[in-house]
User: What shape does this take?
Amino acid sequence: MTNKYYMPTKVIMGNDCIIKNSEIFMTLGKKALIVTGAQSAKRNGSERDIKIALEAVGIPYEVFDKVMSNPTISCVYEGATFANKNAVDFIIAIGGGSPMDAAKAIALLAAQEIEEENLFSGIYEHKVLPMAFVPTTSGTGSEVTQYSILTNDKAQTKTSIASDLLFPTVTFLDAKYTEHLGVLTTINTVIDALSHAVEGMLSVKASFVSNALALTSIRMIINCVPDLLQALQSGSETVISLKQREQLLHASFLAGIVIAQTGTTAVHAMGYSLTYFKEIDHGRANGLLLGEYLKLVEKVQPDLSGTILEGMNFSEAQQLKELLDELLGDKEEISVEEIKQYSKRAIQTKNIANSVVEPLEDDLRTIFTQSFAK
Assistant: This one.
């Protein structure tokens, strides 16, 4: 296989990096659309800093803050209509995976007409609005990927728009915006990043470049686990220091670069049904499944699983499963019929064929069953 590495997004990191680099917005356009959710960007100060930076360089802006968790197709079409009505020429996304994924679709749809039935076709004109991204969680990595994941009610799952057009132009990484994330949100998003790094190494598209980044991300996350567990036990997010928050944000960023090269695997394929039908947070869904899938890899390709586990200071996949169980707590109920339904859906996805260890439908049923065993 011929491997490639492509990540055209400029990344600026550090405290107050938005305000200190406000002149960059002048290179993106003359009027901005800020895409975000209803509350979090206002609470953590990121939206305020963006507005200060835009006002400092004389760029007017509009705000579209209707993005919900797991954004829908109708949401992004509404956002694109709003963008065109207000004659904006670039997009600024603030938030976790939901606002960033929505912003990419809005940037695409505001630049060209795409019928809803063709939205996930991958066939687009070479037109998209420039984008600046500000992640405020440490999980999705969307700030450096070419994917926009949307809730697709017609297909009853989450579906990806995948195109190099969707790489953001510039990303700002400032950990202070993650400082007051609640404990459960922090854990769920961190597990999402861990899943990206691990799945990147389990992809048929993995390369020495993506593996090097993935292992670095894994080690950075595992180094923070003691503080995550302490925060979980105390119920206080203040246990996690700003330095640790920065390490987690950078680990998520690296894992994002990984999946931009490799895509995701069976874990994501299975997790989408848990999110769509059971309303389980995406990162939590991945975490519930990751340990059991790695146990399957351990049986088929022990050298590969061993390399991943070595990065965690573990010797067997069961240790990862036990750590994830400790972080995730009590599990949801899942029926035999649901397991059959979700396995049947997952086996049909592209993610399965992207897995180095390609599971059969029976394997998926076993993973679901063992993952949710009490």
